[in-house]
TrEMBL record:
Signal peptide segment: 1-22
Tagged with keyword Signal: yes
Protein name: SHOCT domain-containing protein
UniProt keyword list: Signal
Natural source organism: Paenibacillus rhizosphaerae
Length: 129
């Protein structure tokens, strides 16, 4: 199981819980960020790097134990703002792609984007364990 996908989907659950009804109708799945497929360079997971975690399993275990991303970052001396910025960036790219493909309207895009940072900031304090 890809921990980045777990985290993004977990964030999406929070977004659907706290967001507007329009938001829950238009954002239902997440895809992981692009990797260095063409270059052959192994890309360390951005989320793991931001949280100072060594592996997906280590992060998964901390989440399974009931820790929030904020707790995990604090335990490792990581910058929680970097984690928030990373998630906002990834979710913004997904919104951009959905707008480009026409799966959401410009009004929905604007509404979702306006709420995104606040929702992600709340989600980092939420335990999914």
């Amino acid at each position: 199981m890809n921990i980045k996908r777990v985290m993004i989907v977990g964030t999406m659950v929070v977004i659907m819980s706290f967001g507007s009804t329009a938001l829950s109708a238009s954002i239902t799945s997440a895809s992981p960020a692009a990797k260095w497929a063409a270059t052959g360079v192994k890309d360390k997971d951005e989320l793991l790097e931001a949280l100072h975690q060594d592996s997906d399993e280590e992060l998964y275990e901390a989440l399974y134990e009931g820790k929030s991303l904020h707790d995990i970052a604090a335990d490792r001396g990581a910058d929680i703002q970097r984690v928030i910025d990373l998630q906002v960036s990834q979710l913004t790219r997904q919104l951009d792609e959905r707008l480009r493909k026409g799966s959401i309207s410009a009004d929905q895009y604007s509404a979702h984007k306006a709420e995104l940072r606040e929702i992600v900031e709340r989600s980092v304090h939420t335990s999914f364990g």
